[in-house]
Every structure is written in C-alpha cells, then in structure tokens.
Amino acid sequence: MNNSEERRHFSRITFDGSTRISQGDTHWPATLIDISLKGLLIEEPPNWNAETDQSMEARIQLDQESTIAMTINWRHAKKGLVGFECENIDIDSIVHLRRLVELNLGNEKLLERELALLGRQ
Q: CA 121, CA 22: separation in Å to the nearest integer?
C-alpha cells in the first residue's frame, strides 16, 4: 500500500454525472472520475486555465432534479487528472452525496465512520 492509499480515509465513488467546474464567469464542462465525502477527481478539461490558488464551484448533476454543488479547492494535477478538496457544501448537496456514497458502499457502518472522520477535519 502506498502513502496516498494509507492516508485515504474516504471511499471514492465512481459516478458518471454531468459535471461543471466554475471560477468567476469561466466554466468548464468536466468528466467526473470519482467523488467522495472529501472531494472529487476529474479529467482535466480542454482549455483548463483556472487560478489554482482560488476557490472554484463544482456542480454534478445526479438526475433531472438532483444536483451536488460544492465549493472546491485545487489540490493536485497529474497525468491529465485534477483533484479537488471540498471546502463547503450545502445541506441538500450533502444529503445527495451521502446517499450516493451509502448506495455505493453498501455498508452503513463504513459510511458512519467516514462521516465521523469528516466532522473531525
């Protein structure tokens, strides 16, 4: 197990939702690789020129009525992938994200452990 796997406390969920990253008036459609309670990973969008030292917004469309919206901070970029950490998420979005994680984990105790870790960070 490498160091990043040892440090990872949050399960990554593969999800293919329509995703958009925004910073100010600039928007990039993005391909979502995975999402967790702590952040998300996308393929680097074409014409990517975000200011990595400033917050961005992510919107992931789950279905016609449900969206996860969060304020994110750039954390890393490697081999065409860009990782972000969640800075802020509204209550409706966290409910949707929690349900998505719960359905994919299939283990309520693991979900509760991750939620407890999230509360301590």
A: 25
Of the candidates 117, 120, 93, the one whose C-alpha atom is nearest the C-alpha of residue 11 is: 117
Mean pLDDT of 3-20: 66
Per this entry, what is the length of the chain? 121
pLDDT of amino acid 11: 66
- Cβ atoms < 10 Å from Cβ of 28: 19
87 alpha-carbon distance from chain centroid: 10
The residue ranking higher by pLDDT, 15 or 39, is 39
Q: 12: closest CA among 88, 70, 86, 69?
A: 86
C-alpha to C-alpha distance for 87 and 72, rounded to whole angstroms = 5
Give the tokens for residue 85.
């950490």
**pTM here?**
0.79
Distance CA 41, CA 17 (A): 12
Contact status, residue 57 vs residue 94, Cβ threshold 8 Å: no
| Calpha distance 28→6 (Å, rounded) | 32
